Each structure stands twice: as C-alpha cells, then as structure tokens.
C-alpha cells in the first residue's frame, strides 16, 4: 500500500472540489432607473413634478399677495333708433348705440386692453362690428366704452327667424347679443403678463325708440358674462 502512494509524497488530497457556479442577475423592470431610456424617463418625470410644484407655489403666492378679483362688465345703456328688415333684399338697417362699463376692482393689478372687437348679433346673424381704441385701465378704475353700430347689412333670416323678428317688432323690444373679443394683459407692479383672450357675452333686450321715446319701456342695465 505504501509503495502505491509513494508518488504522493505522503499527502492525501481527497476528491477534487468543483469550481463554484457563477450566477447572473438580469435587471428587471422594478429595479430602479438603471441607465439608458429608463434613466431619461425618470429624469423627465422628476423635472415635470418639480415644474408643477414651482408653478403651484407661484400661483399661491400670487393669489396671497394680489388677491385678484374678476373684472365686471355691464351694459348700462342701449339706444336703438332703427331696426328695419327688408325681406325682398334680406337687408337689415340698424342704428344701435351702447354704453359698456368695465370695472377693475383690483387694488394692485392694472389691465392693458390691446385689442377690442365688439360685434352685435340678431338670431345668431352678425350685423355689425366695431374695433375700439386700445387703452390701459388702472386699478380701482371704471372705464366706459361707447360703441355705435350704424348701417345696413345682408342678413339671411329663415322662416323661424323672420317669425321671431316680426314678433319682437310688434312688441317693440329686440333680443340682441353683444360680444366683446378681447386681447388683454395684466400689469403687476413692473411685471406684465402674456396676452389672454377673454370673450364677453352680453344678452340684451333693447326697446326701439323714436325721438328719444320708447313705447316699450326703458332699457335695463344688464350684466355680462366673462368666458375664456
């Protein structure tokens, strides 16, 4: 036995030990961003979240400092001295004068009215448009606009619209819509905002008058609606 193991120099090493198995880890979808597209998406989400928070804080601070109030629009007077429709030519002859009060109730906010387009409608048919002079309105200020619509216009009235016209003619009061299309900017101290485009809607019941007198009563002040 000793002769058979003499080549081992007296040491016994036993059976060979296999090398440890290698393990591989494949990153899954829930393992964070990693790199590449995943990292870019995470960065964009964080950036969007940061912007949303900053804008929210800015709006809150703005409201706490300036306490903005809604601008008020009222039509305080409407004088309609002519409103005649000729059926064979589909022509409307009209003469309408308005007084529109614009009230800025804010203490620290001024308003630039860069563009003012005033249009009037009967039965959703536009029969007159006037472009008014731009102006700046300071805080706690009331401005009066006085557009006048006068002339004649081709108006296509169907059977039902013509029936409405004749009915209102017999009463002496016409339902007329006034629309103001604005481009305005707000001034906060030395800062001016970007332009916004509100649309003002005024639905009026206007009595026809002759020689300053109306058989159907007087015009009642009407509050307008503000939309964006």
Brief overview:
This protein has 228 residues and is an alpha+beta fold.
Kindly describe this structure.
The protein has helices spanning 37-66, 159-171; strands spanning 72-86, 91-104, 109-122, 125-132, 135-137, 141-145, 148-154, 173-188, 191-192, 199-207, 209-210, 213-214, 222-223, 225-227. With 228 residues, it is α+β, with helices and mostly antiparallel strands. The strands form three sheets. Strands 3, 4, 5, 8, 9, 10 and 14 form a seven-stranded antiparallel β-sheet that branches. β1 (72-86) and β2 (91-104) form a beta hairpin. The mean pLDDT is 85.
Shape: elongated
Question: What characterizes the major β-sheet?
Answer: 7 strands, antiparallel
Q: Which residue ranges are poorly predicted, with pLDDT under 50 across at least 5 consecutive positions? A: none
Beta-strand percent range: 35-45%
What is the end-to-end distance? Answer: 105 Å
> How many distinct helices?
2
Average predicted confidence as pLDDT: 85
Radius of gyration equals 38 Å
Order of helices and strands: HEEEEEEEHEEEEEEE
Helix/strand-derived category reads alpha+beta
């Amino acid at each position: 036995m000793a002769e058979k193991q003499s080549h081992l120099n007296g040491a016994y090493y036993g059976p060979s030990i296999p090398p440890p198995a290698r393990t591989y880890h494949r990153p899954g979808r829930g393992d964070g961003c990693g790199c590449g597209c995943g990292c870019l998406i995470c960065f964009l989400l964080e950036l969007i979240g940061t912007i949303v928070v900053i804008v929210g804080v800015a709006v809150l601070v703005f409201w706490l400092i300036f306490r903005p109030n809604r601008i008020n629009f009222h039509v305080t007077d409407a004088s309609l001295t002519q409103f005649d429709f000729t059926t064979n030519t589909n022509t409307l002859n009209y003469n309408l004068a308005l007084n529109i009060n614009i009230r800025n109730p804010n203490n620290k906010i001024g308003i630039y009215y860069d563009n003012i387009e005033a249009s009037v409608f009967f039965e959703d048919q536009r029969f007159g448009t006037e472009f008014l002079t731009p102006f700046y309105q300071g805080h706690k200020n009331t401005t009066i606009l006085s557009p006048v619509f006068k002339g004649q216009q081709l108006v296509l009235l169907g059977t039902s619209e013509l029936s409405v016209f004749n009915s209102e003619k017999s009463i002496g009061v016409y339902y007329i819509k006034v629309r103001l299309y604005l481009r305005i900017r707000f001034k906060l101290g030395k800062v001016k905002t970007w332009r916004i485009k509100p649309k003002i809607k005024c639905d009026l019941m206007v009595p026809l008058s002759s020689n300053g007198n109306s058989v159907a009563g007087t015009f009642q002040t009407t509050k307008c609606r503000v939309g964006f």
